[in-house]
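Internal QA ticket QA-208
Title: Verify multi-chain structure generation after dependency bump
Assignee: T.L.

Test input:
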Amino acid sequence: MNAPLLETRGLSKAFGGITATEGVDLDVGEGKIHAVIGPNGAGKTTLIAQLAGMLAPDSGRIIFAGRDITRLPTHARARLGIARSFQITSIFHAMSVLDNTLLAVQAHDGHSYRFWRRARRDKRLTGPAMAALEQVGLGHKAASNASGLSHGEHRQLEIAMALAGASKLLLLDEPMAGMGAEESARMVVLLRGLKETKSILLIEHDMDVVFALADRITVMVDGKAIASGKPEQIRADENVRRAYLGMEGPGETIGDA
Amino acid sequence: MHPPVRLGVRIAVLLALAVLPALTGALDQPFLLDLALRIMILATAAVSLNLILGYGGMISFGHAAYIGIGAYAVGIPAYYGEYSGYVQLPLAIGAGALFALVTGYICLRTKGVYFIMITLAFAQMAYFAFVSIEEYGGDDGLVIEQRSEFTGIIDMESTHQFYYVVLVFLVGALYLVSRIVNARFGMAVQGAKDNDQRMQSLGFDTFRYRLACYVIAGAMAAAAGWLMGNYNYFFSPEMMGWTHSGELIFMVVLGGAGSLFGPLYGAIVLIILEEQLSSATVYWPLILGAILIAVVLFARGGLEGMLAKLERRK
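Actual output:
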């Protein structure tokens, strides 16, 4: 088997006395969708923040494409090919929808010390930016102001921005949160289609989505990864059922809900 | 199709400035020319402030320092008998850029009100530094015997020629900013203003783009200061005072921060108002203050924003 695209070893982070992640080992394979599930407060978003470089881990290592990136700042990781979407929509509200994705493309097209040519007339930017919008179904909104979009459209724009950068690894923090059923189904199809070119670390609460998409699943509880494996292994795992599924009714298994 | 109100006003204002020397000659109103010169020089500085404040979200409260630096770049060489514009102008631009680079490197590590305060502090440091230099007149400053020389090309001593030099700088500053903000660099700077964290997660080293923007604005403002020193035949630390920095912010906000021509409109209105009100009443700063409050509360986009609204309504 090839070395995984992203590896973490013993990733730990605590805020004061409160443990956010503790000794997390994770392997995200090339071209795979790796879901991280767990109850609220399990440390999933903190994990993503450490992977993206917004939080520095107290200990442990992060290796991306064979390179130790543990101490690299956010923007340097993004340039290596790690794109992140945010659980709480984080876009450029004062700009048009197209400008939002255009910036994502621009970030990966060399430096931006270009002072003269008009960026919005640059086909090298607008082409891929428009393509990313079409991919998520926002093409018709390209000229709209980003702040005027609906909540679901904001989520779509988040994904478009992650796609537009031509990154190798997408860290998607609850991409479907707040989406309608139809948009959500569309997103599942879209994410599955991305596997050819990208690897995805997916945090998601909707178990139907997780089991429909994931190649591997890691279960986090109280900052620890208590289990990791193929979906059917996770479904059958006793530890998982006790720690995580205990919240659901007896006899029920995850994924059936 | 909406009527192009904004474009119309832009062309009208620039045309009016272009033909003003001929008009004032015919009307025998040299005073108007003097007023227009002051407006254009300060507008050039305000345009540069708008680049960082309006487009970049960096609220500098020390921008007048660059005007002072530019004026000293005329005055100090002149004090030693060096009048060449080819020395003075690059010196002004270089000194402005360097001051921006050094102070910006520190200022830009802070945000919000801290940024405002630290830019103010650096400008005040420059102010007191020049106050302490007795050789160059201390806090009184010094007279400049003659304007920068561009022998055989331009005679800066000729009021009309100097006027058009200033106009070229103003139009040049406007054009430069319009190119910068629409280019990739400008997109990066505006993105960082809108959502810095997002820009970093996309892969932009926002600190560096901000710093580069800050340096460009500093260099432009110092060029305006070079014009100001020539215009006044005089330089003093007072030109760096924080009230002047405040005036520049006033111009940008009044005209419309983040709009290309806003600072020019702001400069025109503010300076004419000052001129009119100060001869009418000693309480004129009070009235100006009230106007600024009204603009901030009721017309967020400033004068340019009002024009845009007019454009949509028709």
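Spot checks passed. The radius of gyration of chain A is 19 Å.
Status: verified.
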